[in-house]
Design brief:
The chain is globular. The protein has 260 residues and is of the alpha/beta class. It is built from twelve helices and six strands. β4, α9 and β5 form a beta-alpha-beta unit. Strands 3-2-1-4-5-6 form a six-stranded parallel β-sheet, with helices on both faces. Helices cover 50% and strands 11% of the residues. The chain has two domains: 173 residues, 3-Layer(aba) Sandwich (Rossmann fold), CATH 3.40.50; 76 residues, DNA polymerase, domain 1, CATH 1.10.150. The termini are close together.
Length: 260
């Protein structure tokens, strides 16, 4: 079936900015440590893509982390703990977003090619307003200015609920959902696109799912690189991704293939 793609909605950290999605997980590790609870970076990465308050709930709901919390605090976690942790993690996230604000290589070239085809470019994030504003400003200074931006605070519920995509479509006057492509670097991003009825595509190399800095990724041997790429690809495929690219430089061609 031939489709006419009118809109691409990019994720931010791990997709267009912050190679490897380094800012969010480190802040979560530090926030839990503040309460005497040890969590690993992979554990902090697990729910990535959710609104940050939902991210905290998802982590605390994991059996092992919940047990560590109870051992440290002497009781199970409650909702007020989420709010208290959120207030602590907020400035940490803002500081981390400022530190990890470089555009991912290929972003500007990809966006230019899409716009040359008349495709509107938007961006959504699980960040709250304060951290989102940091990355908006940093991206603008580097030449990436989406036609529309939205964060999880702007809608009733963040990903995997499709409200950010729907609000973007409404604001930009784009429909049907089959004319929209969502591009992200987490399992939740894939779910977000699918729940909106849009095309849902995953990016591998810079992703949260890969979890490596640009230097770490480039230092992998060829066999290590392909093994890790295959792992991330399988993660996306199990969620039902319509397509998967290693980098954003491959994205315009994949979107072009959707129109044939």
């Amino acid at each position: 079936m031939s489709v006419n793609i009118k809109l691409v909605v990019f994720d931010w950290a791990g997709t267009t900015i912050d190679y490897g999605c380094m800012a969010p997980p480190g802040a979560f590790v530090a926030a839990f440590a503040h309460f005497g609870v040890t969590v690993s970076l992979p554990e902090a990465r697990g729910p990535m893509g959710l609104h940050k308050k939902d991210h905290l709930r998802a982590m605390l709901s994991q059996a092992e982390i919940g047990q560590r919390w109870q051992s440290s605090r002497g009781r199970p976690w409650i909702e007020s703990d989420v709010q208290e942790m959120y207030e602590i993690v907020t400035p940490m996230q803002v500081a981390a977003a400022k530190k990890h604000s470089a555009l991912i290589p290929g972003t500007l070239e990809c966006v230019a090619q899409l716009r040359a085809k008349g495709i509107i470019v938007a961006a959504s994030t699980g960040y709250f307003h304060e951290a989102a504003n940091v990355i908006y400003s940093a991206a603008k200074e580097q030449g990436f200015i989406p036609d529309y931006t939205i964060c999880a605070d702007d809608v009733p519920a963040g990903r995997p609920a499709p409200w950010m995509i729907f609000r973007t479509m409404e604001t930009l006057g784009v429909y049907p959902a089959s004319a929209v492509v969502k591009v992200g670097d987490t399992v939740v991003d894939i779910q977000d696109g699918l729940n909106a009825g849009a095309w849902s595509l995953g990016v591998i190399d810079s992703s949260n799912e890969m979890g490596l800095t640009k230097e770490e990724f480039e230092n992998l041997s060829a066999s290590e690189r392909e093994t890790k790429r295959a792992y991330v690809k399988n993660r996306y495929e199990r969620e039902g991704a319509h397509g998967i690219v290693n980098t954003l430089l491959e994205l315009p061609a994949m979107i072009e293939s959707l129109s044939k």
